[in-house]
Design brief:
Rossmann fold; 43% helix; alpha/beta; five-stranded parallel beta sheet; 12% strand
């Protein structure tokens, strides 16, 4: 896809995120919206996957380590054809397969159940190691939050992955600088993130995670990096695309009411109209 096509798709993903969270009356819109461009690039460009065969043996794997941003992952899975978009409005409803956090047993396209922060990178490193042991060509991607990397298990996994030279593993850190209690540098600063991953024998790339030129170049560089895993530190805007959610810590984990939903959708419609003029 061209970058313009990716931008249009990401905007549809953002509409689905807001719609799902509004319908659920709960959820995490801020971090889902900040990562929407990364989700879109992964599922429409980067990953070797087949919506008609979600368990394809040689598929690339994706682990959403910051599992609370499931609305973003569900939105892109639906956009890619893994399940009907109409089902997104059942998010978090009793009896729905679209739970508040990813569930690999019930949701097509989910490779790892997640939600307990800090654990996803360990699972991804294990998947990458299994690929090496089995001499398979699949690659493994994990998306972590910048607040999440305050968890110690992240660094245990990074140390092991770097030591094992897992060059089929890519860690993306969604660096929107906000977590539930405030800015990450005020709660418990993980900065400089790139230097920390470098200390664990990672190749690191710093990008604007809301710019498809930079996203595309980073994943290309990661593919070409041999002998060590890659960490992409993606600077993003929390709540990206919705005027009153952007860079607002309050929108880490709450749903818009009906009036706010209307404003949010109008914001995203304007973005879509502007993209159509390009």
């Amino acid at each position: 896809m061209t970058n313009l096509e990716l931008e249009k798709t990401a905007n549809e993903v953002r509409k689905s995120i807001v719609t799902a969270v509004h319908s659920a009356k709960a959820g995490h819109p801020g971090g889902s919206l900040s990562a929407a461009d990364i989700f879109t690039y992964l599922y429409f460009e980067e990953l070797n996957i087949d919506p008609k065969n979600p368990k394809m043996a040689d598929r690339d794997r994706f682990v959403l380590s910051k599992g609370h941003t499931a609305p973003g992952l569900y939105a892109v899975l639906a956009e890619r054809g893994f399940f009907p978009k109409e089902d997104l409005v059942t998010l978090r409803h009793t009896g729905s397969y679209l739970q508040g956090h990813p569930d690999m047993k019930h949701i097509p396209g989910i490779d790892m159940s997640s939600g307990s922060l800090g654990q996803g990178l360990s699972a991804a490193a294990g998947m990458a190691a299994a690929g090496k042991f089995d001499k398979k060509d699949y690659r493994v991607y994990a998306l972590c939050g910048d607040g999440e990397i305050q968890e110690g298990q992240i660094w245990e996994a990074a140390m092991w992955a770097g030591f094992r030279k897992l060059d089929n593993l890519v860690v993306i850190v969604d660096n929107n600088n906000l977590q539930i209690d405030g800015t990450v540098d005020e709660v418990c600063s993980p900065y400089p993130i790139d230097k920390k991953f470098e200390a664990f024998n990672f190749h690191t790339i710093d990008i604007n995670g809301n710019d498809f030129d930079e996203i595309r170049a980073a994943f290309k560089e990661a593919r070409e990096t041999k002998g060590m895993p890659t960490a992409i530190i993606a600077k993003t805007v929390k709540g990206k695309g919705v005027s009153f959610m952007e860079n607002a810590v309050d929108w880490h984990g709450k749903a818009p009411n009906d009036a706010e939903y209307e404003i949010a959708m109008k914001d995203l419609e304007k973005v879509g109209e502007a993209l159509c003029q390009k």
